[in-house]
Every structure is written in C-alpha cells, then in structure tokens.
C-alpha cells in the first residue's frame, strides 16, 4: 500500500493558491481512480482508497489524502493515516509546491531536508524522518520584493493558470510512475 499526500491548506479561500498544488494533484489522481474524497475515521483528513495503474496491469493499493489542517500542521494527520494504514515512510509520497524550481517544472526525489517548507517540516517532525518521496511542483520565486509567504498564498497568474492543468497532469503522471516504475525511472522521465 502507498500513501500519497497532497500538501495544501483546506477551504475554498485557499483553493487557487500556489501552496495548494498538492491538493490539485491528488484531486486529479482521485479523478483517474473514479472516486471522490470522503472524511477519514480520524477526522483529520479526507481520503480516497483505490488502485492506481494502467488498465490490465496489477495495480497497487493507494490511499490519496488531503489534510484538514493547515499546511504547517500537516504532519499530525499524515502520521495518523500512516499509522492507521500501516504505511512506512518509504511508501509515502508528498506532493508539494517548490519555490526553488521554475513554474511548470517537476523534480522527484527521496528524502532530504524541508528547505523552509512548513508542510515538509511538519511531516518530518511527526514521522521522525524525512525519508519519504517528494513530487516537487515548481512555482518559482516571488517577483521583485514580494514576501515568500504572500507569494505562496496568492493565486496563480493568468498565464500560469493556462499552464497549470499540464503541470497538475504531469505531477499526477509522476506519482503513478513512482509507484509503478520506481524512483530512478521516474527521475529519468520527469527530472530532465
């Protein structure tokens, strides 16, 4: 079993923000599964359970999750789900925004620091390790002197909104590739 966590902030006022790309990607994966999110028993996250993979191939069980807490408190709900489903950190994929990568670009990796990302910091703290997979969706740096917090909590530009569906689709493909083909092949395909 795999646990795929889309990092973001709950509620409609945050829905279009750069910080919520993780939510958009797991929404796309849920659409591919043909399922909708529902409240988990813990009350701390919304989940979809199912199988991800190409039709006719053996597809592993996957839990898609969106925390009901804010980004900087994501770790608690992720830890609760990992415990409930008995998923080790090596089978967790966090999908999140990344300032140090240009918009429209993806990077996939295993482990590493949090690079100032509060959702990753919370996950590392709650899980006791950073050894989980990351699908990092680039949002780029803020223009001019705009504060980072204001930038990540702002909506995409008009131009970016036109390209966003392609980035979301590509990130969802990367998650499926990680599960089906492993890290090396996925990095070769998406990190170039």
Automatic annotation (TrEMBL):
Q: Which domain of life is it from?
A: Bacteria
Q: Where is the active site?
A: 19
Q: Which GO terms describe its biological process?
A: protein quality control for misfolded or incompletely synthesized proteins; rescue of stalled ribosome
PROSITE patterns in alphabetical order: PEPT_TRNA_HYDROL_2
Q: Broadest EC class?
A: hydrolase
Quaternary form?
A: Monomer.
What is the protein name for this chain? Peptidyl-tRNA hydrolase
């Amino acid at each position: 079993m795999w646990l795929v966590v889309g990092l973001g902030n709950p509620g409609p006022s945050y829905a279009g923000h750069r910080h919520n790309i993780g939510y958009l990607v797991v929404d796309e994966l849920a659409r591919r599964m043909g399922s909708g999110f529902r409240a988990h028993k813990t009350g701390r996250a919304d989940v979809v359970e199912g199988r991800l993979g190409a039709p006719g191939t053996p597809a592993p069980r996957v839990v898609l999750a969106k925390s009901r807490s804010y980004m900087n408190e994501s770790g608690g709900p992720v830890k609760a789900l990992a415990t409930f489903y008995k998923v080790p950190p090596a089978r967790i994929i966090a999908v999140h925004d990344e300032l140090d990568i240009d918009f429209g670009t993806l990077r996939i990796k295993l482990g590493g620091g949090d690079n100032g990302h509060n959702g990753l910091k919370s996950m590392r703290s709650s899980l006791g390790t950073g050894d989980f997979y990351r699908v990092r969706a680039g949002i780029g740096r803020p223009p001019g002197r705009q504060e980072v917090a204001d930038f990540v909590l702002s909506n995409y530009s008009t131009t970016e909104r036109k390209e966003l569906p392609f980035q979301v689709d590509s990130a969802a493909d990367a998650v499926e590739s990680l599960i089906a083909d492993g890290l090396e092949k996925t990095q070769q395909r998406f990190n170039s």
